[in-house]
Fold this protein.
Amino acid sequence: MIDLWGEDPVWQELLRQEGVSFSSGSRLSDLAVLVLNRDPGEAEAKRIREYVESGGCLLAAAAHAAPVWPELKPAEKRLRWIAPQGDSPLFRNVGIVDIESRGWVLPDANIGVTDSGDKAIVAASRRRGFSILLPFDVAQVLAGFASSPRQFPAETPRFPYDTVARVGRGDVRRLVANCLRFLLARRGLPYVHLASLPGQAGGVFGFRVDTDFGPRQDLEAVARLADRVGMTFSWYVNVGAHATHLDLFADLARRGHDIQLHCQRHTVYPDYERNLENFRYGKAAMSAAGITPVGVVAPFGEWNPNLNRALEEQGFEYSSEFCLAYDDLPFRPIVDGRLDKVLQVPVHPICLGRLVAARASAAQMVAYFRSVVDLQVARHEPCFLYDHPERIAQFSDVLADVLLYGKERCGSVTTLTEFAQWWQRRERFDWSVRMSDAGLAIQAEASADDLSVVVEHGNSFFTLPAVTGRHPLATLTWRTMPEPARFDPRNLAARRLSLRLRASSFLRRVRKTLQGQRG
Ligand SMILES: [Zn+2]
């Protein structure tokens, strides 16, 4: 069992995202791994030290571990990112982890490296036990909602970039999950979690279209591309620009496409009232055309708590904004200490237009998107790409190649709405698991035939249907994990932002500030 020492909604949501069974609340009995996620009191620190040194396993931020082992002496330091260095299982399928927060460097750190060149993580025995100490506080990092320009590694004349979440949520989660895998393995236990993919799929692929200002002929070209590759897409309609084409979207919905809302006016406001008005108008116009949207993607991938409140008020089930998260599993942001009603469904943030700006050739565009697909498959996570009608029409051969590759590599396709609704069933699934010498016992409230439990141990795994039952380990067929993605050293070069990019980021902030003041 994994226990979370302090009740913290951000940590709890991260563990739910991973789909692990855990308890919350300062217990040390019958425990495989302790996650120490707050400063322990003096008596607690003593108990925790005894627990670990007598054979327990601990994951903690360096700052929270310092009261337990006063000899640690973490030095506070601003932390931009940490990166893998050499081969460590803690960085399996994890690239650079963008932290952008207060951090703590420990002199005996031995895994990974920080942006200032210090070693990042301590993974070390403590007498008979073991601890992994991270140089940052996970909950504090994930509680931030800021965005900033970020370059993505590619074999292109310039790196493609967009304004995205400042924190690498997906990689923070994957790093934490790898720490848990490692610590459980120390205790001879597998990592057991609900699959991040429906059914027994090895991957799942989807394509999102933000309609923006695309002329009708381009919208029709997108629909032809969908037919050509045998997929249905998720379309997010800019109702203000496409009010006269709602018939086309109603027709696409009848043909199985997923038609949802982008906006009425193509902007995100800093305040609640204008956001509410924007999405209320858009939703009403679509409903009048016979389409009832349950999902939104906000213009420019922008997100703020007032947008979020407006989407909650309008009863949307989910939204997708890469300024909040990208390349991550769905999750609910914690706003004012409360779990959001609107599920966030992240996508990959780089589209064709960004690759055009990076001066990519057609072959480089294909190679870029194929590498994104490969990465998500290696992670056993869904892959969602997105684009706009003009670019899709202009580069339909490039995209046909990419979409067919994504379909083939992932092995199944979905839409954002279908996936968001599956994820909500996964969230509601109440289960627990126990390991014993006899095998694995799953206890579930109900059965769900599109959910499965993944059991990972070392380089092997197997999946089981998520239903109550006992599974003797000897009877199970182990499969080999997908080959992990190799760390791309271009990631390091991509962290150095050019003056041009800094300037454009500054102008964007000025524009948003002025928009706020216009009232
Ligand atoms: Zn847009």
DSSP finds 17 helices and 27 strands in the chain. The first strand starts at residue 2 and ends at 4. The mean pLDDT is 94.
